[in-house]
Amino acid sequence: MSQAEQNVGPRGAGHEPSNDPWKGFRGVCSGTLVLEAIVVLLVLTVVARVDGGAHMSWWKAVYIVAISLAMILACGVQKKPWAIPVDLGLAALVAIGFFVHPSMSIVGVIFLAVWLYLLYLRGQLRSRIRGGYLGSQHD
User: Fold this and answer.
1) What is the radius of gyration, based on Cα positions, of the chain?
2) Do residues 127 and 139 touch, judged by C-beta distance below 8 A?
3) Does residue 111 contact residue 105 with C-beta atoms inside 8 Å?
4) Distances from the Cα of 39 to the Cαs of 35, 62, 80, in angstroms?
5) Number of CB atoms found within 10 A of residue 109's CB
6) pLDDT confidence of 139, banded at 50, 70, 90?
7) What are phi and psi of 121, to 5 degrees?
8) In terms of Cα–Cα distance, which of 83, 88, 134, 130 is closest to 111?
């Protein structure tokens, strides 16, 4: 049996899925971006309140709000082929936000792990479509 035949589901390769499985994945990515934007905006309150606001400055607030706004705007371009690299880049900008406050880096590392898991899920979805494992490929 060839490698291509081993990766085919028990019902065969099937046809193109009747409903778009990538639409659901794009929705998960958009939802993750919205959640990440909200959490990053909450970092603004942490920076403003910890140590009586000693860590707060105007450029830190601009950095936090700009990243959050970019995340909200990125929700609308999840259909583009460059959307995932943009999402990972935004998560990386949050993860390197230690210069703003350590809590921002903690949030960034958590969401970077979420994005890496979403990359894994994207690969799984791609292989399942290729192998014909989706139910909508056999209706």
Assistant:
1) 20
2) no
3) no
4) 6, 16, 25
5) 14
6) low
7) -65, -35
8) 88
- DSSP tag of 75: G
pLDDT at position 3 over 70: no
Residue among 137, 93, 80, 84 at smallest CA distance from 115: 84
- What distances in angstroms separate CA 138 from CA 11, 16, 21, 38, 121, one per listed residue? 8, 9, 14, 40, 22
Picking from 46, 33, 62, 36, the residue whose alpha carbon sits closest to that of residue 101 is: 46
pLDDT at 75 over 90: yes
Residue 120 or 8, more confident: 120
Q: Please give the structure tokens belonging to residue 113.
A: 């792990």
